[in-house]
Amino acid sequence: MPSGRFFAERNGRIFLTGNCHPAYRDAPKWDIRYRQAFEWIAPYGRRRINGHNVLLSHYPYQSDHTEAAREMQWRLPDMGEFLLHGHTHSDQIWTSEREIHVGYDAWRRLVPEYEIAAMLEGAMSHVSRSFPNRAQRRCAHGSRPSQC
To answer: HSE on the CB side for 122, CA within 13 Å?
Structure first.
């Protein structure tokens, strides 16, 4: 993951949910660094993107990067809303029909809100319910991710 300086030098608003693992004993040490780089830090959140309510959480609803799901006490219950999350340490972007992994490990870059809006529109209109991996993914305007 890029350094705090990397994030501080970006244009726009950058949000962080979960402070990664809130139960870790050294979480306060990281909190100081994160607050220098991110506009907003919370364990979870809710935003409206292009008319769609979207939940924000470090954790996906159920999936994990290990065989058994861990840290279930920190996860939001799946009540049918879209969820933007991280945590999986995977390049898989869609982790279910309503879950989008927005972590740096999936995208290798920050994800602009307009791309999330396009993905939500595609999911809502049932046009695109494929679950692309990084190699197959295209940006909202059709070019390869390296050209976004």
So the answer is: 18
The residue count for the chain: 148
Strand partners, 47: 54
**89 vs 135: CA distance, rounded Å:** 16
Torsional sign, CA 83, 102, 130, 52: positive
- Say what the pLDDT of residue 31 is: 72
By C-alpha distance, which of 86, 90, 109, 112 is closest to 99? 86
**Helices and strands (H, E) in the chain, number of each type:** 4, 7
pTM beyond 0.85: the answer is no
Tell me how crowded residue 13 is: count the other CB atoms within 10 A of its CB: 9
Average confidence (pLDDT) per 10 residues, the chain, 148 residues = 63 66 65 76 88 92 79 89 89 91 89 93 64 42 42
